[in-house]
Amino acid sequence: MSQPWEPGDTRGPLMGGRGGRGQRGLGPVIQTLNVPSGDSVPQLRHQSPGVTTAVPVPTPHGATAAPHPTATTDCVPTAPLTPSPVCCCVSPQALCSVSPQDLAVPNTGWSAAMCEQFQRLLRRAADGSWRRIPSYRRGLDYLPEVVQMAVGVVTRPGPRLFLRSVDEEGAGFEYAIFLHASGHRTQCLCQLGPYLEGHHGFAHGGAIATLIDSTVGTCALAVAKASVMTAKLSISYLAPVPVGAVVVADSRMERHEGRKIFLSCHVRDTKRDTLYAEATGEDMWCCGDGAGDTETIPQNCASG
Ligand SMILES: CCCCCCCCCCCC(=O)SCCNC(=O)CCNC(=O)[C@H](O)C(C)(C)COP(=O)(O)OP(=O)(O)OC[C@H]1O[C@@H](n2cnc3c(N)ncnc32)[C@H](O)[C@@H]1OP(=O)(O)O
Q1: What phi-psi label fits residue 289: left (phi over 0), alpha (psi between -120 and 50 degrees) or beta?
Q2: What is the ipTM metric for this complex?
């Protein structure tokens, strides 16, 4: 299996240094939840040291999306990007009104295999059967339409999402989650970077668990349209995942009872030759009494 970096490969995050996301320190305050629709890819950022440029890229429908503003290009801070000692929730970018940066798009840390699979999944999504879910650094901006239903309009920055805790492109989790039109299935295309290594050359089991939990959790969120918590996760690790490998975690709802949503997840290579892990999970939505079938799952726990 090909690795995204080789020693001396200047594409790699270990050579590229920090700040590949175009931001350092804390991210911008989220002013709006109007994010790009799930099936368009707003930008592919090309990078040279110290410069991040938004360039248009083709959408899956063949149109060319306008460059999406980034904090780096449109919101250049005038102070060093270090967290404020007074309030950890305010950054130099906080006054900017840019939209949050969608990170579920190609960057310089994505391997050719990752880009190829991403394009394949975008093509598959073009008929509306799937859609790409934008992904942001902060959890509350994640799956915004679902979160908004669960907790109302978000007016402050959410906590930083664990999977987006590594800024260096390609070093940690690089991923894009696709949601099936049924709302009961998610697929996460993921490249596991070198900071996720456990045994030499292989991804840490906790990283695999994180990938699975996030894919399953996103599926549960989409089903419940409300806040959910993972109550149980059982994983069988069947084969080690090489660092740098591109995998697909495929999760679906199996059934639900009351507040519990039962889900399954399989992690495979992109050719489906290797089953790396299989898992079952139970997520519980965190308000209301629950219900016996999908139709009666509370659509808005905040008001129901
Ligand atoms: C926002 C953007 C995000 C954006 C991110 C989106 C994707 C990322 C998803 C990440 C998900 C996570 O990592 S979540 C973080 C990891 N998970 C957690 O921290 C959960 C910790 N556990 C809890 O908070 C709690 O135990 C809950 C919520 C799971 C359940 O507590 P509860 O609501 O008080 O329920 P309780 O009354 O005790 O029990 C109700 C019924 O459920 C059963 N039950 C209770 N707990 C469990 C359990 N762990 N496993 C099985 N069954 C259980 C009880 O036996 C009982 O059955 P009966 O008597 O009725 O038959």
Answers
A1: alpha
A2: 0.92
